[in-house]
């Protein structure tokens, strides 16, 4: 990909698989190994679901903007909703004994575990932005960039 | 996600394949387990060998199935989680809740 790709999606949960595939593909082109590309896609998946459910309140007319950006060192994904945002500060620890059998509440935890850095930015009057960053693994010597012929 | 059911006497094995994620796999998993619990099945093994990955909704549904089974006096156990699924079970500490087996025969005789 070029250095930056931006897409805008309606708030439909069904779009998450499309976004997942796109993320994995872009990550592979950026030299991520398959497991790392899957981790990034899983993090983006959780950010998108949060944006649709908790950010935009499942309102299909509201948009989720996803921006992919890379340089030689890192791959960054910004996921922005345009709703009321969500409370990331008070998400309970799903690994705490008392929360182990909860049926929800693992989305933010997954994001934090699948990438190297996560930040949440309130955009007053505009919603929330989640920024996911993963360091790019340098390709092995002589290895072609995935998706490009030699 | 696909789910196919095998019965071994009183024990039922559900072979799952694909991904267990929001809006598809989680719903199919719920339907498959609910159908067995409604039939009165008390011993269920979820064979995760063919499951490539799960998201938080899939993990949540797995926990929900475990709790529904317990409410109905049934037991739900896991068999053969693969690389990523195994990682997720460890990451979420769910391996401390579920009985997890590598060998199907051992799982079948554990009830």
Structural overview:
The complex is a heterodimer of chains A (150) and B (111). With 150 residues, chain A is an alpha+beta fold. Chain A has one domain: Heat Shock Protein 90 (2-Layer Sandwich), CATH 3.30.565.10. Chain A has helices at 16-29, 34-55, 107-114; strands at residues 4-10, 63-70, 74-80, 117-123, 127-135. In chain A, strands 1-2-3-5-4 form a five-stranded antiparallel β-sheet, covered by helices on one side. Mean pLDDT of chain A is 89; it is low at 145-150. Chain B has a single domain, classed as Transcription Regulator spoIIAA. In chain B, 40% of the residues lie in helices and 32% in strands. Chain B contains four helices and five strands, in the order ββαβαβαβα. The chains are: A alpha+beta (150), B alpha/beta (111).
| Helix share, percent of chain B | 25-40%
**CATH architect. name of chain A:** 2-Layer Sandwich
CATH topology name of chain B: Transcription Regulator spoIIAA
Report on the biggest sheet of chain A: 5 strands, antiparallel
Strand order of the largest sheet of chain B: 1-2-3-4-5
Q: List low-confidence stretches of chain A.
A: 145-150
- Overall shape of chain A: globular
Overall body shape of chain B: globular
The two chains with the largest interface, and their residue counts, are: A-B, 22 and 23 residues
CATH topology tier name of chain A: Heat Shock Protein 90
Radius of gyration of chain A: 16 Å
The CATH class name of chain B reads Alpha Beta
Return the structural class of chain A.
Answer: alpha+beta
Number of DSSP E strands of chain A: 5
- How many separate domains of chain B? 1
Report the β-strand fraction of chain A as a percent range.
Answer: 25-35%
């Amino acid at each position: 990909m070029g250095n930056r790709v931006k897409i805008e999606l309606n708030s439909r949960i069904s779009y998450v698989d499309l976004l997942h595939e796109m993320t994995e593909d872009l990550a592979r082109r950026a030299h991520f190994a398959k497991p790392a590309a899957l981790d990034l896609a899983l993090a983006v998946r959780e950010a998108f679901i949060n944006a649709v459910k908790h950010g935009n309140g499942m309102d299909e007319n509201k948009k989720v903007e996803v921006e992919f950006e890379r340089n030689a060192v890192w791959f960054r994904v910004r996921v922005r909703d345009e709703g009321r945002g969500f409370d990331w500060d008070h998400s309970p620890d799903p690994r705490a004994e008392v929360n182990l059998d909860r049926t929800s509440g693992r989305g933010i935890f997954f994001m934090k575990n699948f990438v190297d850095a996560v930040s949440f930015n309130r955009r007053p009057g505009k919603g929330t932005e989640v920024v996911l960053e993963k360091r790019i693994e340098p390709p092995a010597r002589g290895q072609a960039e995935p998706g490009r012929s030699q | 996600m696909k789910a196919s059911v095998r019965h071994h006497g009183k024990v039922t094995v559900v072979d799952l394949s694909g991904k267990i994620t929001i809006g598809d796999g989680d719903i199919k998993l719920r339907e498959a387990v609910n159908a067995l619990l409604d039939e009165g099945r008390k011993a269920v093994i979820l064979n995760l060998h063919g499951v490539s990955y799960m998201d938080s909704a899939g993990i949540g549904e797995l926990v929900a199935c475990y709790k529904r089974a317990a409410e109905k006096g049934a037991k739900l156990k896991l068999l053969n989680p693969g690389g990523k699924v195994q990682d997720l079970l460890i990451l979420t500490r769910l391996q401390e809740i579920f009985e997890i087996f590598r060998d199907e025969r051992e799982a079948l005789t554990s009830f």
